[in-house]
User: Fold these one by one.
Assistant:
Number 1:
Amino acid sequence: MTKGLKIAVIGGGSSYTPEIVEGFIRRYDRLPIRELWLVDIEAGRQKLEIVGGLAKRMVAESGLPIEVRLTMDRRAAIEGADFVSTQMRVGLLEARKWDEHLPNGHGVIGQETTGPGGMMKALRTIPVLLDICRDIEELSPNAWLLNFTNPAGMVTEAITRYSKVRSIGLCNAPIGLQKWLSTKYDATPERIYTEFVGLNHLHWVTRVEVDGVNRLPELLDKREEYSGKNVPATEWDHEFLMSLGALPSYYLKYFYMQDAMLEEQLISLAKSGTRAEVVKKVEDELFKLYQDPDLKEKPKQLEQRGGAYYSEAAVNLMDSLYNDKRDIQTLNVANGRTLDFLPADACIEVNCVVTGQGPLALPVTRVPEQTKGLIQAVKTYERLAIEAAMTGDRGLALQAMTHHPLVPSVSVAKTLLNEMLEKNKLYLPNFYPSNR
Amino acid sequence: MTKGLKIAVIGGGSSYTPEIVEGFIRRYDRLPIRELWLVDIEAGRQKLEIVGGLAKRMVAESGLPIEVRLTMDRRAAIEGADFVSTQMRVGLLEARKWDEHLPNGHGVIGQETTGPGGMMKALRTIPVLLDICRDIEELSPNAWLLNFTNPAGMVTEAITRYSKVRSIGLCNAPIGLQKWLSTKYDATPERIYTEFVGLNHLHWVTRVEVDGVNRLPELLDKREEYSGKNVPATEWDHEFLMSLGALPSYYLKYFYMQDAMLEEQLISLAKSGTRAEVVKKVEDELFKLYQDPDLKEKPKQLEQRGGAYYSEAAVNLMDSLYNDKRDIQTLNVANGRTLDFLPADACIEVNCVVTGQGPLALPVTRVPEQTKGLIQAVKTYERLAIEAAMTGDRGLALQAMTHHPLVPSVSVAKTLLNEMLEKNKLYLPNFYPSNR
Amino acid sequence: MTKGLKIAVIGGGSSYTPEIVEGFIRRYDRLPIRELWLVDIEAGRQKLEIVGGLAKRMVAESGLPIEVRLTMDRRAAIEGADFVSTQMRVGLLEARKWDEHLPNGHGVIGQETTGPGGMMKALRTIPVLLDICRDIEELSPNAWLLNFTNPAGMVTEAITRYSKVRSIGLCNAPIGLQKWLSTKYDATPERIYTEFVGLNHLHWVTRVEVDGVNRLPELLDKREEYSGKNVPATEWDHEFLMSLGALPSYYLKYFYMQDAMLEEQLISLAKSGTRAEVVKKVEDELFKLYQDPDLKEKPKQLEQRGGAYYSEAAVNLMDSLYNDKRDIQTLNVANGRTLDFLPADACIEVNCVVTGQGPLALPVTRVPEQTKGLIQAVKTYERLAIEAAMTGDRGLALQAMTHHPLVPSVSVAKTLLNEMLEKNKLYLPNFYPSNR
Amino acid sequence: MTKGLKIAVIGGGSSYTPEIVEGFIRRYDRLPIRELWLVDIEAGRQKLEIVGGLAKRMVAESGLPIEVRLTMDRRAAIEGADFVSTQMRVGLLEARKWDEHLPNGHGVIGQETTGPGGMMKALRTIPVLLDICRDIEELSPNAWLLNFTNPAGMVTEAITRYSKVRSIGLCNAPIGLQKWLSTKYDATPERIYTEFVGLNHLHWVTRVEVDGVNRLPELLDKREEYSGKNVPATEWDHEFLMSLGALPSYYLKYFYMQDAMLEEQLISLAKSGTRAEVVKKVEDELFKLYQDPDLKEKPKQLEQRGGAYYSEAAVNLMDSLYNDKRDIQTLNVANGRTLDFLPADACIEVNCVVTGQGPLALPVTRVPEQTKGLIQAVKTYERLAIEAAMTGDRGLALQAMTHHPLVPSVSVAKTLLNEMLEKNKLYLPNFYPSNR
């Protein structure tokens, strides 16, 4: 009925864009895209032009009738879109650097998606995303918003609670695990069943079956694990893993091995700067490659960037939504009645059946007692931080920071909060209205 | 119909006993006690005889027809009892000393009712209490068990889940707050309304009304607080308190001011030893007093002991149960559907109407978002520790210790657990079956 | 602090008014009323003047400094009131006559508070009550609204869901049962404990204890029951009652003995007309009595009117709210989490502790499986009818009527609905906007 | 890994058997059956031999290596089975005749799966099914039990609550609706999405989308409906259907058009006897056909029998369980947290994703208020009747009968119960232990 799809990628100047473009080209038979709009802000114009040029060359090479549009006009891109995806970094890598650096200065984990760093990222990002939602509500109310922007769970929850936009949060960790299991057991994804319990960047894998055989005990026993490139490898304690009875997400190392992870961060910081600074260098190199007018495909170096499978996750999800595919994907959606200890509107990371009308969260068949405390503790922080982001209320921000399990006390929270808000003030108009 | 009540006090040799005896004498018109049995174990025979002697002299002085019985035969005491109360210390103050001392050695809060110390106390105590429950089920199935034994919330939950005994957990903190408010506002308790949210030793006071006037804002603003003698006084941060919007229990300082409290503990430890050692001295002096054959009343020095109002709380509760009084008391009971994020069988500290058939938990009218994370995190630890206590499963014990919010990592948990189990092995037959 | 209370009685011209006036006089020591406003509509002016005259003579006789004001100006009465009570009959007894008569014509129970008749009463009444609530929100936002107007459960639910007024629904059936038990067992109310499960006019008494002794089995076995004057006496089946295990409200006879009750109605209708017509005669006689200028007290004949204890229920409730009495009363309030199969905002009839800040619903300790179906079925009807009343949506009205358990089919529902809406059109502006 | 599947069909002598045999033959590529055991009781030996002979000829004709075994030894059939399916009729069609006839005699709907008739069927059937479950628990604890035996919802709930067998209830109504929509819109099932709310034989279809287009409004507007052969065709009222906003199951006519359906039954009874008697004739003719030694395929006449698609439903389910297919099917399973007004262990009819580890109930996205009352009312009856079946408690049976929405009063319930229990006494050992 529709004559091809319109897709808007907000933050289109990102170094990840070639990956998603490649995904669209490969899946064109199921996702007939007519227009692909890459949007960015003025400050990102140069990167948008570079990466947009590559995107155009890739499409031309494919011979497909997809029109690639580059724009700074977000509303034009959103108007009538079928899918909007976001991959933004308010404050750029510079802001991330401070998210990671400042907590370290007070003996606290510095991480871009959780802890005080993640909270700052949430405060910067949520109001911008909600502005985008206002545009979608007006200009493409039936669009699906696929949110990759971190902290993806918090951002998605803010959108769900404060807008009418149909939104789904996405992370590459679940698909990464599936790929890893697929390789490990030499089995197609259809033969593997995994179940997740928890939140974005705070999940436990509670079931792993390959061809119906329970593989969890052996994975725990051998301490084999899938880990992202952005989290340092540290070995789990065997006794702990066996009695936990579930595979913890590699992000959980920040909680379960706080001491070792902090030490690792401090050493690494002294040696090569924050992770943001490392990433900055990788990105600069990528953009140099992208400028090559002879490059007509995604360069292999992109895979080292850390966000592997993001594109595949996005394209899979669009495919299932567009084609009412009813397959199971692990997504960030409203809890509903899935976890009985969280509110219905809390965003969780959970297996969903993706139908044409959206994802339906599957019931979880096993929730280890162990997981409940951390999930609730982090969700409490998240909800307080979302409220703070929406209102600019400093008291709420202090409550959020204090109640994060990685923050040891009110006094540390207060010191960090003051320092970090100040450092981010350009990006926090709700907290600094005079800067608007 | 009954010709007077039979009461069994288990741990009757405690230094607190004169307080409860005084309570019984004062409230005789509403609680017509026929027999008061003080029970203790062989190791406590001497203390039982001393304090039992005082109890007899106090009753004689009152002229009331209460028969005081001293015994080492627990079953005889329990048989046909209307009320059984417990105030025990498995392992005595010596065990408490290590509960406080060992965590400090690893930079962790050492406290007798929470953290690794509280967990050890739970592991030692729960199996003993459940043995007592077996006796009650057999010998006085309609008795009410009033449990003062710490950690009172965990012990009560274990009883509720693993026995059929009708049991209620009691703490002196809520009644202490009421007394403090009563004095402060010069108002009888009937004119004051307070509401509690949380667990034993982990509650927030979310409403304070005196003659219908909301006094919470001014209490928060002036940072006025009620504090027990056993927790060092440290001032709350004003901004934190105002944005919290509730009065935190003084036990919450261990969580919100972990750094300062730990420092205080280390200094105090260096200076005067653990709190257990301080208490030991006070107790020795009390027993010296009790021995005086001319002493026929509760000595004033007992009030400095820390457990103020315990007796009043107990006598109030018995009165309401016996007389179907239907007044409101703050008790430790099964959650039911009170807090929607906890299981029905989780023990919480909450306002109850005390009827002749037992307490009915009142709905809580306000649950600040802030409180949920810590409540769930501590409840997760509690439930894992209860399971560990029941089974002697070391893996579960490691899970419990690791998931306590005051424990920073798996590795610290493991080290502490090994050390502390070893130190307590005489009192942990479930973990060391060969020691049975 | 306040210098006496202001009370507004809406529908002050009711024949019941002398009862509530008597209640205020008797309880003046606890409820220091300064002004008592009796309000009515123009059509009720004559009755208001008659009953108001009696009220003034009663107060004068008492010597108390209560000022009795008669008015047609509802807003003046509401302004600054501490309590507003309503006892209205939109459409007067004439409308009730048809509520009872028309269903009978189609072989359906005709009853003023349930079934098609009750539904019509709800459709007439709810919009008027919500108009009153708008006035209260504006003119006395802290007032308590005590709603006696039937169907009290539905009206209270509509107020709770569609206004911000603090409202409580009241019925005389629970207090009537208590009085009956009190006489039967020669015991003061404090010695009796009863527990109710269900909705207004649809409850089951699931616990009856006198001095702690369970009296429910003997009440069921002897088929002894409390019954209102407005419901014909028909005996319960013994086997049914014993296996039900709870005392059904006498209103439940319309459901459990539909056939016999209908037959009784048809015979009674043929003989003496509807209950409305019987009541009309009683009322006419009462107003003749009230006119006597020498009458200075509530005449005894009022007690035969059927609404016994309404006044006592009202005065008890005001006393507990004003004095933060914290006693247990059976009231109609929002479900919250009390019954796990009903929504939080559904109005139920349940034991509450009445504090100065309002009633807190007590948990129910026993919900017989048997009760759930009827409660949900009637609540479904109620919620559909409330929606219909608010919107004037005829489709919703058909759904409500069809889903009432006393209505046998869609076709009967449709016929009855058309007939009854037409007969009530003067009082249904939402359904007949042109009549406004 | 397994070398072919073993399947046991209990009630294998049923006239439906050729259909399921045909299904197994067609789906052999996905369901590699090694052994197919047809089991029946001694009284059904002749039918088993006839239909078993046909089954053997059908398999021989297919050339597949499936071994067909006929037996009276249930335990041998169950031992080591991968799937057990049940299609039983305790008391045969003779009992069904009285289920339909006796209620009619008292002006009550007579129906084999609901009302007093359905209740009798449940009382006869549940204990027999639980006996089978004891065998499965012992002899093939990992088998899936597919229950087609009516009342399928109640039987499945009884199994779920009182045994450890992994069991799923199946009905042909949902698949029938899907087939009907498929034909009507000329669309493969993958392009159609339907959502069901309710219980077995008491569901509402709340969503119908074809290629993503909502077709529910037009289906309601045109009053187009799918209806089974066993329920007489009667037209829905247009206004009712439009305001209901969902397609009611054709079984709901017994509730919504009680008067018309009863009249139809009485007329039909006078003319041609009960439905049971009609079915008896059809069956006799089928068995005549089956005896023909030249018949090697399912005869077309079987399709008129009423149970269309049962076989397809069964084979689909086995395929998805065996192959971890993860498609959506509408099944009868435990509620879990799907419908918030029913207990977790209540059996509901709901969309499920069928994984290799069993079905996971999908959340329902819309529950019309209208449906809740009837669902709860019928579930209340069901749970009381299940309890009665398990215990033989006559009081519970009276409660169940009285609380069924099709039964007008306690007195009718009591009369019917006495009559019907007496008529069924040979099949009710729990109620008549001396008959055992």
Number 2:
Amino acid sequence: MKDKFFSYIQVLQDQITKKLEEIDGEAHFQEDIWERPEGGGGRSRVIENGAVFEKGGVNISAVHGALPQSMQNYFGVEDVDFFACGLSLVLHPKNPMVPTVHANWRYFEMYDQEGHIVDQWFGGGQDLTPYYLFEEDVIHFHRICKRACDLHDPTFYSEFKKKCDSYFWNAHRDEARGVGGLFFDYCRAADQMDLGQWFDFVTEVGNSFLEAYIPIVIKRKNIEYKPAQREWQEIRRGRYVEFNLVHDKGTLFGLKTNGRIESILMSLPPHVQWRYDHHPKKGSEEERLLKILQSPKDWV
Amino acid sequence: MKDKFFSYIQVLQDQITKKLEEIDGEAHFQEDIWERPEGGGGRSRVIENGAVFEKGGVNISAVHGALPQSMQNYFGVEDVDFFACGLSLVLHPKNPMVPTVHANWRYFEMYDQEGHIVDQWFGGGQDLTPYYLFEEDVIHFHRICKRACDLHDPTFYSEFKKKCDSYFWNAHRDEARGVGGLFFDYCRAADQMDLGQWFDFVTEVGNSFLEAYIPIVIKRKNIEYKPAQREWQEIRRGRYVEFNLVHDKGTLFGLKTNGRIESILMSLPPHVQWRYDHHPKKGSEEERLLKILQSPKDWV
């Protein structure tokens, strides 16, 4: 399974970066191959200063070795080795009318000291972080997510949509990071789904990504915007940084397993602002977004 | 002791904000009084868009109540109440030739369920984060720190300087946040120092702050700088954000005790950049700073 999934994310990385370069029309991904001293490595692809994408990364990695002590404590296990591979992407568009997007699809295995698999599971998801709210875009994104889910289980969309809202909750701000999408984790072989069926589900979601995001980019990338709207985007990007550095388990996992820092932190936006006690004007588009983030709603 | 120290930091906040406004010459501190639902509150003073200070805060707070569960685990105690008060300041100057400064002086008490004090200590320090290295400025800052220490114990400077270097270590970047200063914590009554003597020491350091920092600001605030130097400052500010959100115990304490978010996060810089895999040119001033941050040195 680990070889099968790793092959899948290699091909998916090619498909996604090719499409994104085509949409951007100017910038190209810079590729960095890296090795992890303790085992494994990755292939990072980062785009910067594009016509559409101000900064973004589409990275794959496959790492293995002894599970670090802090992660053993986290999982409540002792003396285990691990293998983890996945694709992580974050795109920060230049135009504040185009939402930031994040996606991740991953597979994890744990072994005892004889090398036998003691646990294995999939995880992942994809979610949208707009700076201005176009409801039809959010509905489109969620519809594609739902379609991918419904092909595998009628309960998945509703379950994984809720998990996404609760995972990407910026608790110290009492607001969501964005308008959600899907989040799932610890998808193990069980009564209704064996591991092969989980593979089919996770790759279904991975294959839906471009269809979920690209039409929104095309629709919004040429809208004119004002300096004040760009400032609002930079202020909101600050909340993105806060979530990723304070709450995000993926970032934490990368830092604790001695992953490549520049690949982990490619998720941080290029230009960011923090203003003291900033509040949007009453009745503004900016305030309308905030209200949605403070009480996540159903979109489909 | 808690009343005595709280009175002290109220007066110190007035002295420091008065002096900073005088140096800035344009902007004034905005004051916000806030209450903590569980007990206590604070007086935040924030300056923005000044001629010298692009963003900064000089905040005092005094909070009390049941110690939150996560903090009880951290301290290894059960069923205790607490009182904590302190002054925290961070100043982000506009000119990249002027260093960012941080200082904090605080006092903590813990009580059993009968209200008896079971533990009490002081903590604090002050440290400098330059974007360009003027060695004479760093030496000046450390000399003032050392003088304040030497008046109380000849071993303090060397001990608290080392603690500062190790506390403000941005572990995931393998570099210091800045060029250090002083850091001390859990300063309890013991053989050589009773609590009153610790009060005298901590207030000595607090009283030394303006003399340690202001001459540097005056010397550097009118130096002309280029857009590329400003960009370097914004990139380095990103490392400041990373430290504060990933490693800083003070920020964590504030978030976990339901402190006022805008007062806690006033420490975040106004304009920040993240570039992928950024490295300064060989032999540049920027690289010279990095080398110092990678292996902290003795300044006095």
Number 3:
Amino acid sequence: MPVSVFVGTSVDGFIARANGTFDFLGGDDTEPHGYEEFFATVDAVVMGRNTFEVVAAFPSWPYEQKRVVVLSSKPVDLSPGRAARLEQMSGEPHEIVTKLAATGAHHLYVDGGITVQRFLNAGLVDRITVTRVPVLIGSGIPLFGVVPRDIALRHIATNTYRGGLVKSEYEVVK
Amino acid sequence: MPVSVFVGTSVDGFIARANGTFDFLGGDDTEPHGYEEFFATVDAVVMGRNTFEVVAAFPSWPYEQKRVVVLSSKPVDLSPGRAARLEQMSGEPHEIVTKLAATGAHHLYVDGGITVQRFLNAGLVDRITVTRVPVLIGSGIPLFGVVPRDIALRHIATNTYRGGLVKSEYEVVK
């Protein structure tokens, strides 16, 4: 089952500030850059508890009726999610993929720094689309982390947008 | 005087491994991506001692007869540089720029992680060209570091290359 990452970062590679906010990404003012088209192709979103808590505080739940899985080994209060299709799982990335595949998922969208890093390190990410916002913020939550060995990527396509976004799509070489 | 950065990084933002090597950038096998054209426009290269020591160990000195300035507050043995136009300076970035402008430089090329970060934080970098090599290495010497405040960039152009390089050029908004 393909696993994709689709994420915005500063040019220096942060997905959020240290406190979890990501005002620098532009929010609702961000130019359309293919997120909706991507989102339409996935049938489950997988994220960690930190990302869930940030997203749950949004004025509206952004994942519509898509199946959302919050990874946590400790109990998580899912009520702030307000979503009909919200569940908690725990375990290693390959267990999560197996469980989701067994319950009908065909394309996973993995989100959040720690979760992306865990799935990457487990060799389970197939595609990474990074959209770089033209700003340096200097510190925060990085998209990428330590890897057990070099991970080769294959560049698929890069698109640029009027406001300065640069979106690059890579396939993970396995 | 314009100050430019022109640098290759992994997709996760490293210019070198922790030990200073940068095999992952492709070395002599790197597809032409505008470096020679850029290099022809600069008349002085500014780097820190660490970068100098790495470059001095190359089989051949890569800066030809271009003026090269090694920044260091401690004495540096310049003899490994084998270059006719090699000098040491110390001081704050704006002092370096002033000294170089006073001695005939018109376009500086600032290289090396710490030096790039110092010049960026001093508000002295005008243009940043980052060429991303399609690999994640996970740790090493990062191009960017902590910044005193957000640094806005203006995207100028992005080019992609057959081997998977993605080169993005930014102007620093002042």
